[in-house]
Give the backbone structure.
Amino acid sequence: MQRMDDDNTSKSAFVLWLTGLSGAGKTTLATRLYEHLRELGRNVERLDGDTLREVFPNTGFSREARNGHIRRVGFMAGRLAHHGVCVVCAFISPYRDARDFARSQCQPFIEVYVKASLEECKRRDVKGLYKKAMAGQITSFTGLDDPYEEPDRPEIVVDTEHQTVEESVQQILDYLKPYL
């Protein structure tokens, strides 16, 4: 969807959907991208899994609950983009069918696979979630006892295990140039 800016140039809104394992770097990248887009004067919103779960604390972690959550977020992101807002989403979103639904709601939808090995994510374990999951304190944990279905054909793959944050952000911004 397009909107007219004050300088009479047409810029496209979009939904940038960052998906990957817990600890892969989705939130870090989303925050940096959000800041960069704000600096460019773009109307932008950042939607993050942890933040939304604080607002909707009864969102469960079963496949059905996760899919429902991602479907709602996909719908909301699509509506924001329709109204000219660039949306940066950071969600594990482990199941392809829920991501496919989000894609169907958002035009354009740019899927970014934030790739890092399970071993690297366990090593990082910024929130201590892997430690809790391996101790049996958390169940249905993506990558351990619940699957993460890697994207089939993401528009962008950033390898945060081998790239710096700056390199990953620049790779995404390079892809976004036609929209900026």
